[in-house]
Amino acid sequence: MPLLQADYVPPRFLKGGHAQTIAPRFMRRPPWLPFEKEFLELEDGDFFSIDRLFASGGRERPSRRAAILSHGLEGHSRSVYMRSMAMALLRRGWDVIARNFRSCGEMNRLPRIYHSGETGDLATVIHYALTAGYRRLALVGFSMGGNQVLKYLGEKAGKIPTEVIAGAGISVPCDLTSSSRRLAAGENRLYMIYFMRSLRRKIREKQARFPELFSLEGLNAIKNFKEFDDRYTAPLGGFKNAEEYWTKSSSKPYLSAITTPTLLINARNDPFLSPSCYPEKEAQANPALFLMMPDSGGHVGFPWSSGQPYWLENTVVDFFEKNLAG
Question: What is the pTM of this model?
Answer without folding.
Answer: 0.96
